[in-house]
Design brief:
Blueprint lengths: L18 E4 L5 E6 H11 L6 E4 L4 E6 L14 E3 L4 E4 L15 E5 L9 H12 L11
Antiparallel strand pairs: 1-6, 2-4, 2-5, 3-4, 3-7
Helix pairs in contact: 1-2
Length: 141
């Protein structure tokens, strides 16, 4: 039996609580509204890496290799947080929602291994979701 992969150093221990980490060093973060994330996760399925949810702000974040998203075309409702941005990272154990007594920042998909999502797969899922035509009868925001 092999031991599980250790988590990266940028994920804090539970005793430290959430901490702010500079983007662009270990990862770039890709942020979308929480409601959009369900569709993106459905398209990514098992190809998704861990996802942080900022429940009090209504956003989720994926993590990709540094600069992997730098050349992406702009998509409506998507933000790339790279060098010069700072990102809140919860401890790996913070997975409960506030309705379950958890903190407002949590892992929607818990961290494992290297904790990065493949940039090409994420961009394809984001583009398919964010550029999809509205369904008949759907409300436009």
């Amino acid at each position: 039996m092999t031991a599980p992969h250790p988590l990266p150093d940028w994920i804090p221990p539970a005793s430290a609580g959430a901490r702010t980490v500079p983007a662009g060093r270990w990862f770039d973060a890709v942020e979308v509204p929480s409601l959009t994330s369900a569709y993106v996760l459905g398209r990514l399925d098992a190809r998704s890496g861990p996802v942080v949810e900022l429940q009090d702000h209504g956003f989720v974040r994926w993590f990709v290799a540094p600069r992997a998203a730098a050349g992406w075309p702009r998509l409506p409702g998507m933000w790339v947080l790279g060098h010069g941005h700072y990102v809140a990272i919860p401890p790996a154990e913070w997975c409960a929602s506030p309705t379950e007594g958890g903190p407002p920042i949590r892992w929607l998909l818990p961290p494992r291994g290297r904790c990065l999502t493949g940039a090409d797969a994420l961009h394809a899922a984001l583009a398919a979701t964010l550029l999809a035509p509205a369904r008949p009868g759907a409300r436009r925001g």
